[in-house]
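[step 3/7] fold_predict: job queued, chain A
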Amino acid sequence: MIIEDDKDIAEEIGDFLQKNHYEVFLLEDFSNPISKILEVLPDLVLLDINLPYQNGESLLQELRKESNLPVIMLTSKNTEIDEALSISYGADDYITKPFSPNILLLRIGAVLKRVDREVSICTYKDLRIYFQKGVIKKGEEEVILTKNETIIFSYLYQHQNQIVSRDELMTDLWNNDEFINDNALTVTISRLRSKLKSIGCEDMIDTRKGIGYILS
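[step 4/7] structure written:
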């Protein structure tokens, strides 16, 4: 995922990476990038420091509360302070503009080789969540989710501290090309709860009668 507000630069980097066999996602809405990162769950983020709404270093700090996925900082600033801050906030690498595309390609390859291959790890309380694999772990125990269970849990996770209606969950499933009826949604949530219960999280999904669901 490329998080760069200069559209020309973002598209230039994206085109180059696509030619080198990477799948690329360009962030266009900078109002809530953390939510989009957790939705897409890329293998690596290229993150500019100078962004609208909040700078990249602040965004990186927030991201590190949710995920350890690799991040390479991109910046036009060339000071030791910026590099030190980026690394201290959890960046995996730091590259200064202007840079050679081939150097960027090498840096990306090096980071992906260096980090744990299970890059998209999110946490909630004492759970480790691998959305790409549909796996939730608690200590040494784990459960494997179906696609629909993963979509539902992912939506609840992205909307922590918010009540999510059944209609919202149905819409999100439809957006992911999963067309289920109301009864099927009830069954899927029941199965998801059972799996969470099997690893000691039986009350994690709370029902708010007549409204919807919320992660407890």
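[step 5/7] annotate
The chain has a mean pLDDT of 87.
Helices lie at 7-19, 33-40, 56-64, 80-88, 101-114, 147-158, 166-175, 182-198.
exit 0
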